Amino acid sequence: MKTIVQVPMEKELLDRLDRQARELDVSRSALIREACRAHLRRLEQAELERRYVEGYQRVPEEASEEETLAWLAAARLPKERW
Fold first, then answer.
1. 17 with 28: CB under 8 angstroms?
2. Domain range annotation of the chain
3. CB of 38 within 8 A of CB of 32?
4. Is pLDDT larger for residue 24 or for residue 62?
5. CA 73/CA 76 separation, integer angstroms
6. CA–CA distances in Å: residue 73 to residues 52, 61, 65, 76, 77
7. CA 59 vs CA 34, 54, 62, 71, 77: distances in Å
8. Of 42, 41, 22, nearest to 30 (Cα)?
């Protein structure tokens, strides 16, 4: 892996990244790569949630489905150990 990317950033941010990298015993590059991956996962999750909500707004559940789900939850939840 040898792709070089230069990203201008404030000194304070760079200092914080370096401190965190030292605490985690990883390189600055590894920390930045993981931060980018985590950010992309959050964006993907937000998009999935948006699509999920949009789908239910487009095709809402019918009352009978809600009643069935409520009955199933009521039958299952008392058996769960909290």
1. yes
2. 11-79
3. no
4. 24
5. 5
6. 21, 16, 12, 5, 6
7. 37, 9, 9, 21, 27
8. 22
